[in-house]
Specification:
alpha+beta, globular, 21% strand
């Protein structure tokens, strides 16, 4: 789990979802906007994992990999995990986030 200051609330989630740019990766797609801070959310649709146990496991994997790669500022993003993310490792997920941040966050 991410610290509360790095998690999106419902209003921020709706804003990112409605006006954010899209980034596609084989493990996830992300909607993101440039901001002063850094906030994130992970979503695992029921179509991807039918049981709550599998959705929560995938979400925890996402947050665990994200924790080590989070930039200090510059982006607010919502990650929608795909079915391939259910069988991935923490290192593969971390590499995917590194590629995402490299292409989206401007220093």
């Amino acid at each position: 789990m991410l610290p509360k200051r790095q998690r999106l609330n419902a209003r921020e989630f709706a804003e990112v979802f409605s006006r954010g740019a899209r980034y596609d990766h084989p493990l996830f797609f992300a909607k993101y906007i440039s901001t002063k801070g850094a906030k994130f959310a992970a979503v695992v649709p029921v179509k991807v994992a039918t049981t709550a146990v599998r959705r929560n496991r995938a979400r925890r994997l996402c947050y665990g990999a994200l924790r080590s790669k989070v930039p200090l500022q510059g982006i607010t993003a919502v990650f929608f995990l795909k079915k391939s993310a259910l069988t991935t490792t923490n290192d593969q997920m971390a590499a995917a986030f590194e590629a995402f941040f490299k292409t989206t966050v401007r220093s």
